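Fill-in record for MOR2-PAG1_C domain-containing protein.
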Amino acid sequence: FHYLWRESWCGLIGEFCRVIGLSSALTFFGSDAEKWEELLLRQCHRKCVQFAPSFPSHRGTPPAVPIVLSLPSKKVNGLIPYVVEWAECDGFNRELREWIFALLLIVEKPLLPDVCAALRGLANLCKTLRNSLDIERLAEFSVQLIHLLVFFSSFASHGLPTIFSSM
């Protein structure tokens, strides 16, 4: 029994050290949106390449669980407005959708005003995009929109779902 406990404990400590190492590697860029865009969407960080095979559509750093969980809440709050801005400028590619999904999973409540504003912008962007799609693409988009709606519904106390009442 003692051997199993020790092995389990060593594994947990090793995982913790790995996550701390990722955290320091990924928070290096501070608040530079262009560097974050490069890191998340264009070039995988050297400490994260082991996750790349699980995300074949990603050129940048994939939103693997250890990577996402290594981001401090302050950084998550700072990244959400960036990813929404990138979606407004470049559209919703798969990499960006997966990062939006991952960040929405871990954003802490209560939401900061900047995060609320970004999420309202994301909701409006989804509404605009949905209204511009033809019938064939509308079904595909609806499935993706459902995922976002699930997350937005958890923010009911902040008035975000009212955006969807006109959709």
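KEY FINDING: The helical segments are 2-26, 33-42, 65-69, 73-90, 94-106, 113-132, 135-153.
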